[in-house]
Amino acid sequence: MVLVVSSLALAGPPAPKKKYLSVSQTAKLLEDSPLQYAINMEKDDFDQWRQQNAERFWPSGKFIPAVMLKNGKLVPYENPPEISKLVAKVEPLFEAKDYDAALKGYDDILARHPDTYSVMLAAGDALLFGGKPKLAVERYVKAGKVNSADYRSWFYRGNAYAALGQKEDALQSYAQALARCQTCPLLVTGAENTLRAMGGTFRGRVFLPAVRVEKIEKGYEIRISKKSVEWLAFGTCKAMWRGEASHRKSVTGDERDQFSIDEEKECLAQVADFYATREKKNEVHDPAIEQFLASFDDDLMYGFLMFEIVTRIDPHAFLFQDEALQRLTVAYIRKYVLLTQ
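The structure assignment produced for this chain is given below.
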């Protein structure tokens, strides 16, 4: 199983031997470093601060709203001008809720321009809003075969399954859509509404660090929330990866400061160790860390890494994973994001 962001391998070049450090070993490395590492406390711990921290650790990459894969490369999906002109003539029929006439118009376009993804979706919409969700599913499935990269065929399929009362099929379709588009407002709202009708709950990304790492003149400052000292291990680990080129080299074989799945695994392991010690004493309860630990127990850790971290950096990273990792990502979303009773 290989984690990649687009064509970039996250793990970096193979290292002769990977040796992750413990919390105490990390602390010793920072203590002996010629760089300065300072620890300071934040006065408050609030959602916006945690969101900002996540963005600092994993800056968001560019999201393309409508996409397709062409020759292994991701490109924006756009209708050719001639298709857009034809669709514009049919849209008034759909807007007037004359769904049968709209369907005929879309099918006329498809007869002349087969496998036009957007028109296939529009024909499915005409069927769905016209009260024929079963036929709509068939159209959305066909559209997904033409363009498997875009989230919309999965999202619309989920809506059609929900209309049919096929709840699990709807949720699996939403999970596939969310793997491709983690924060699309229309998708999130649709999934939330469907789950609410089922008595369930939609949960987005939850892994929001209660710590941040700032570059200072002679090293790095670790700013930690007083209420969340279990994140101190994560912050010191992240500071180590920013400041210690020799450690990056020893683990990844490459001393450049760039995203590495080894960094995430090492820092998460340290969080888990640090958290376990405090949890045994009933000193801590952090749902985000507990969700990571639960995903590890469920063999869904790589799904956690993809949804919570990797797709922040590249929102389209899911499309470039092997089938095994894609299955884990969808399974993670279905279990931990689309919560049902």
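Interim note for the steering committee: Confidence is low (pLDDT under 50) at residues 1-17. Residues 4-60+206-339 form one domain.
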